[in-house]
Design a protein that fits this description.
With 380 residues, this protein is α/β, with parallel strands linked by helices. The protein folds into two domains: 150 residues, Aspartate Aminotransferase, domain 1; 218 residues, Type I PLP-dependent aspartate aminotransferase-like (Major domain) (Aspartate Aminotransferase, domain 2). Helices cover 45% and strands 13% of the residues. The protein has 16 helices and eleven strands. The protein has a seven-stranded mixed β-sheet with strand order 2-8-7-6-5-3-4, with helices on both faces. Helix 9 links the parallel strand 5 and strand 6. Helix 5 packs parallel to helix 13, helix 6 packs across helix 12 and helix 14 runs parallel beside helix 16. The longest helix is centred in the C-terminal third of the chain and has 22 residues. The protein is globular and about 60 Å long. The two termini are 24 Å apart. The structure holds pyridoxal-5'-phosphate (PLP). Pyridoxal-5'-phosphate (PLP) binds next to helix 6.
């Protein structure tokens, strides 16, 4: 933590436009040396520090990069023969049979398709406000009514209020855990009994896109509820901790009948390099844990800065932090952009709060400097 702050000051004493332009590239090269670094410069873009999309700037595991390099010359082939192996590996990891798994072009495709399947006029979808809206948005486009349940004062899901919003017309209850944009996690025992009770009446969808970034994946995942036969779906993605957002791959774990119905509506087609990268990532036994620890270090260092600046923040468990700036978000975004940092979009109704993703240590040094300048006494 300390060394990040110290680095920030040193960095900015000698920073120039040129140094900043090279920062993203050098930090990525340092963070995760690739087997063939000549490919990386084309992929890494110099420019402002991108902390707006909750990507993992540490990048994919070296095993995934190697697998993609090895397979690049085979991309004239369709990926179909590789898919069953990946599904088998995922199913083993989840402790279910392969007919529980639906692969998607990102977990986003799964959210969209599941939403389209469950939607219909005269029905409702319950989700949190603020929260990730892809599934509820897909249902609303098909005529469902969106019921947004405000988070509690700690910016966590309010399970009691969500349960109270259920009516005979409810088509789905969606929770994102940790929640995007607030990063908060729900007490696992409470979430488990909520999901068991609610799923007796209504399908429950739990989006665990960020759960591998949390302090305790095993204690918090609701995958066990799918294994136990409840009407609960859990989704995961290779876009976050696995650092493969560009490869567009995610999956859902759900009851086989439901999986069959969702699969029948999927229209996307996953790509060969995504499949081999995902397979190699799952076989890399150390990547998730080392990456999780790096993300946690970055998160803790950012919290130290926010405490120093007396900013309120939601207790984070993802690869991002949601904090109160005291400024209209558009104005805060513009000030951060002027300091070469891109932060996330507004999340109504919390319009003086900001979501910022955890970048590499070098990227975070730029962000810390910007925050101190804008929100510290010098910036006030
Ligand atoms: C909570 C949540 N779920 C799902 C997604 C979709 O990600 P992807 O389609 O890359 O898997 C995102 C993307 O940011 C997200 O934040």
């Amino acid at each position: 933590m300390k060394s990040h702050a110290a680095f920030s000051r040193r960095q900015w004493l000698r920073s120039t436009g040129a140094a900043l332009a090279g920062l993203t590239l050098t930090s990525r090269l340092k963070a995760n040396a690739a087997p063939t670094p000549e490919v990386i410069p084309a992929a890494a873009s110099a420019g402002p520090v991108q902390l707006s999309l909750n990507e993992n700037p540490l990048g994919p595991s070296n095993a995934a990069i190697r697998a993609m390099h090895e397979q690049a010359a085979l991309t004239h082939r369709y990926p179909f023969s590789r898919v069953p192996g990946l599904i088998r590996t995922i199913a083993e990891q989840e402790g279910v049979s392969v007919d529980h798994i639906v692969l998607g072009v990102g977990s986003g495709e799964l959210l969209e398709t599941y939403g389209a399947l469950k939607a219909g006029a005269k029905g409702t979808v319950i989700s949190a406000a603020p929260g990730y809206m892809q599934l509820a948005g897909a249902m609303q486009r098909q005529g469902s009514q969106g019921i947004r349940v405000p988070l509690n004062e700690r910016l966590e899901h309010d399970l009691e209020a969500m349960a109270a919003a259920i009516t005979p017309d409810t088509q789905c209850v969606y929770l994102c855990n940790p929640n995007n944009p607030t990063g908060t996690i729900v007490n696992p025992a409470k979430l488990r009994s909520f999901a068991i009770e609610v799923s007796k009446k209504v399908p429950v969808f739990i989006d665990e896109a960020y759960l591998e970034c949390s302090d305790d994946f095993a204690a918090n995942t609701m995958g066990g509820l799918v294994r136990d036969g409840h009407n609960v779906t859990v989704s995961r993605t290779f876009s976050k901790i696995y650092g493969l957002a560009g490869q567009r791959l995610g999956y859902g774990v759900m009851q086989p009948e439901l999986a069959k119905a969702v699969r029948a509506l999927m229209t996307g087609s996953i790509n060969l390099l995504g499949v081999v990268a995902a397979q190699a990532s799952l076989e890399d036994e150390t990547y998730v844990e080392t990456t999780r620890l790096k993300i946690k270090l970055g998160r803790d260092a950012l919290l130290t800065v926010l405490r120093e600046l007396n900013c309120r923040y939601a207790e984070p468990q993802g690869n991002f932090v949601f904090f109160q700036t005291g400024l209209p978000i558009e104005s805060f975004q513009a000030k951060m952009r002027a300091e070469h940092v891109v932060v996330a979009r507004p999340f109504p109704p919390l319009l003086d709060w900001c979501r910022i993703s955890i970048g590499t240590p070098d990227e975070m040094a730029v962000a810390h400097h910007a925050l101190r300048k804008i929100l510290g006494s010098a910036g006030a």
